[in-house]
Every structure is written in structure tokens, then in C-alpha cells.
Design brief:
Layout: H1 2-35, H2 54-73, H3 84-87, H4 112-132, H5 135-169, E1 193-196, E2 199-203, E3 219-223, E4 226-229, H6 235-243, H7 255-263, E5 272-275, E6 278-283, E7 286-289, H8 301-311, H9 318-325, E8 357-363, E9 389-392, E10 409-411, E11 420-421, E12 425-426
Parallel strand pairs: 8-11
Antiparallel strand pairs: 1-4, 2-3, 4-12, 5-6, 6-7, 8-9, 9-10
């Protein structure tokens, strides 16, 4: 009998190892597929401090597995290059001094081919490491691999938005992929207000499956009676704000936002261009005339807040958003798998997930009782809990499996190169 149990245990362990290897290969290949339409030159560009060159993303996601798993768990592992630990560390101060973020685009070497070789070196070592893990080692290893894969999927989303920023910076407006589907949205219905009752509610992650440490612990919140919009603000509605002088009325703006739009001379969302009497915007398939019924996107928190004030509404806080989202399936409304890579709207309720990241009025801070992960991986989220705002819902370029009710994204209030949009609320 003990021998039979041992065989079953070994077989179970082998199946889990193979499942993890299969997932590892799939996620790693997805990053390469995203970069396939790019030229070698495209891989090297950094247009702003928050944008990284695509080749850096390919290298950094490999460094993550090398730094947190291979260097720490495999004494026989030989790093590909001794300086890569410096070049491709993003912000992990406990792992050594990172190369300055704003200077990533100044490095012509290593080139794309060498970075691809680096990825292959890490992948071969990782697969061998997973295959050789004992059953006692596997649980800890599987957690770190899963964290690394979710981390890489976050960078896949960043690849799309960084590539869009890089190409939009070019006055030729080159397309990432001119064959991408660009359907026209159906005419939007008037916003419907979903009434929510006051009371004590619970938010935060409490389910099995992967989640980030900042999604918990689950805790109680007290909410007042409020209403939240059934859909996000569309381009037509945002154009009305622009045409009404929204960017010229200081009464609508927070002081930092008012200074920002004047210093940078903003008068529309990012990537919008007024050409021959019409508004156009840059998409991953090139320059297109504005789809007026599609959700407005690439707006900062300041713009979202000013629009809400002009509308006579406000932005929801993240607890209001999470509770309202519970009535919606996170797998509904994500268009990445349909090949759109552009937010669209239909005459139906578009749901709460997978179109645009929605600004909330909540500052990014720790939930009550929050404790970061132990060790260097604890730098992943916790140390950024200051001066940023929470966004919810995921965008059209978010990985489908990342769409969940409790996912907390966070950006500085001036940032808008992500697919960021607006959902309204009111008391």
C-alpha cells in the first residue's frame, strides 16, 4: 500500500510539473507573438520615462525568472551575462541597484537577437528546473513561477500600450498591425443609473486562484446610498465636454490638473488629432476617424475628474466599483481575443470588464491588515502605495485571465498612455 501511494504521488507531481511547463511555454511565447510585427528599430525606442523599449520588456521578464528562481534555487545555473542583473532589474532595490528607468532607450546593445538568445537560455534552464523539482520543492517553485507568469502577462499589456505610444510619437502614424479589426460601435444608449443601497459590505480577494497581495485582505467597508453608471463615458459625450470649453474652465479642475493641462497644452485625450475639421485618433491599426460611440480612453485622472464635475457627477470609489461589478461576469466584454485591441461599445450594457481601465476616486493605499509578501517579491506592490490612484476593470489589451472583481491597478493621476477611461457615479 505505501508503494502504491508513492507511485500515485509521483504521477500527480509529474502531471503538475507538465501543466506548469505547458503554461510557462504558452505565456513566454505570447510575448514573442506580440513583438512579431515590430522591426528591430521599433524594439529600441523609448519615447517617455514611463514607456520602456519592447526589447527591455522581453529581457526584464526573463530576468524576473532568473533573479527570483534560477539564481536562488539552482546552484548549477550559469547566468547568461553578469551585467544583465543590473540592466534589466526594474525597481527591486533589495536585488541590487537598477539601471535608470528613463535611460532604457539609450542602450543600443544588447540587440534584439541577443535578448532572444537570453530568453532561450532562461527558458531552457527554467524548464529543466521545473522538471527536476522534488515534490517538496514544487509548491514554493510553482508559486514563484505563477507570479512570474502573471508578471509577464502584465508586461504583455504594457507592450501593447508602449508600442502604441512609440508609434503614435512618429508623425507618419505607422500601424502596429494594419489588419486589426476596427469595427464601428453601435449607437450608445443613454446612461442608466444602477442604484446601490447603503450598508456594510465586504471587498477584497477571498477566493482560490491567483491574486496579487494588494487585493487583500478581505475587509468591511461602509457605503452610503449611491448610484453608478451602467457604462463608461463615450467619445461623443467627452466631445461635448470639450466643445463646452471643459479644458478652459478652471472651476472644473483640481489645482494640479489645471496646472498640468496648461503647462502641457492639453485640449483633448492623448492620441487625438484635429485634421480637416474632424477628430481622428491613433490606434494600433493606424490613424482612424474617431468612433464617437466607443468609450473615451487615454485620459488622465485629472481629465476624468473634471469631466465628472462638469457632468454633475463624480468618480466612484473602488469599493462602490467592486460591489457593482459583482453583477457582471469578468469574462464578458474583453475584446483582445477578438483581435480588436481597441475599446468598442455596443447598444447593450458593456459590462465592467475588459474595455478600458476605469479611474476611481480612491487613492492607492493598503487595505486594513495588508502585509506584503516576504522578501524581495514584497517590493512588487506595497512600496508604491502613495500618490497614485486606483483603476478597476481591465482594458481591451489586458490578459483575459487577469480580469477579476478584486484586481487593483494603479497609476499616477497625470498618466494616460494606458487605456484609461471614465465611469460616473453620484450620491
Amino acid at each position: 500500500m505505501p508503494l502504491s501511494r508513492s507511485r500515485n504521488s509521483a504521477h500527480h507531481s509529474y502531471d503538475l510539473q507538465q501543466q506548469l511547463i505547458s503554461r510557462y511555454r504558452q505565456v513566454r511565447n505570447d510575448s514573442l507573438d506580440i513583438c512579431r510585427p515590430l522591426s528591430a528599430e521599433d524594439h529600441c525606442i523609448q519615447t517617455t520615462a514611463e514607456v520602456s523599449p519592447p526589447k527591455w520588456h522581453l529581457a526584464h521578464t526573463s530576468w524576473f525568472f532568473e533573479a527570483f528562481i534560477l539564481r536562488r534555487q539552482n546552484d548549477a545555473y550559469q547566468p547568461y551575462h553578469p551585467k544583465y542583473d543590473y540592466l534589466f532589474n526594474s525597481y527591486y532595490e533589495t536585488m541590487g541597484k537598477p539601471f535608470p528607468r528613463a535611460q532604457r532607450g539609450l542602450l543600443s546593445r544588447p540587440g534584439v537577437e541577443e535578448i532572444l538568445q537570453y530568453r532561450g537560455h532562461v527558458d531552457n534552464a527554467m524548464i529543466e528546473h521545473i522538471e527536476n523539482a522534488t515534490s517538496e520543492q514544487f509548491e514554493k517553485l510553482a508559486f514563484l513561477v505563477e507570479l512570474g507568469l502573471n508578471h509577464e502577462q502584465q508586461h504583455q499589456e504594457l507592450l501593447y500600450t508602449d508600442i502604441k505610444q512609440i508609434l503614435a510619437f512618429n508623425p507618419l502614424h505607422p500601424a502596429y498591425d494594419s489588419t486589426l479589426a476596427t469595427p464601428k460601435s453601435s449607437e450608445a444608449q443613454a446612461i442608466q443609473w444602477l442604484k446601490k443601497s447603503a450598508g456594510i459590505h465586504h471587498i477584497g480577494n477571498h477566493q482560490n486562484g491567483f491574486s496579487y497581495d494588494n487585493e487583500g485582505p478581505r475587509h468591511r467597508v461602509l457605503l452610503r446610498d449611491h448610484q453608478i453608471a451602467n457604462r463608461t463615458v463615450n467619445n461623443a459625450e467627452y466631445l461635448a465636454f470639450m466643445n463646452a470649453g471643459g479644458y478652459e474652465d478652471c472651476a472644473l479642475w483640481l489645482a494640479d490638473g489645471w496646472k498640468l493641462i496648461n503647462d502641457r497644452q492639453w485640449n483633448s485625450p492623448l492620441y487625438w488629432h484635429f485634421i480637416d475639421g474632424k477628430w481622428w485618433y491613433m490606434t494600433l491599426s493606424g490613424l482612424r476617424e474617431i468612433d464617437i460611440w466607443a468609450p473615451v480612453t487615454h485620459v488622465s485622472f485629472y481629465e476624468a475628474d473634471a469631466y465628472a464635475r462638469w457632468h454633475g457627477s463624480r468618480l466612484p470609489d473602488e469599493a462602490e466599483w467592486e460591489l457593482a461589478s459583482l453583477d457582471h461576469d469578468p469574462q464578458h466584454g474583453n475584446y483582445r481575443d477578438s483581435g480588436y485591441l481597441q475599446p468598442i461599445a455596443s447598444s447593450d450594457d458593456e459590462g465592467f470588464f475588459g474595455n478600458v481601465w476605469e479611474w476611481t476616486k480612491s487613492p492607492y493605499q493598503a487595505y486594513p491588515g495588508f502585509k506584503p509578501l516576504h522578501g524581495s517579491v514584497g517590493e512588487y506592490n506595497g512600496k508604491f502605495m502613495c500618490n497614485q490612484m486606483v483603476l478597476r476593470g481591465g482594458s481591451c489589451v489586458s490578459p483575459r485571465e487577469h480580469l477579476r472583481h478584486t484586481y487593483r491597478n494603479f497609476f499616477y493621476p497625470l498618466e494616460r498612455w494606458q487605456f484609461t477611461g471614465i465611469r460616473l457615479a453620484k450620491d
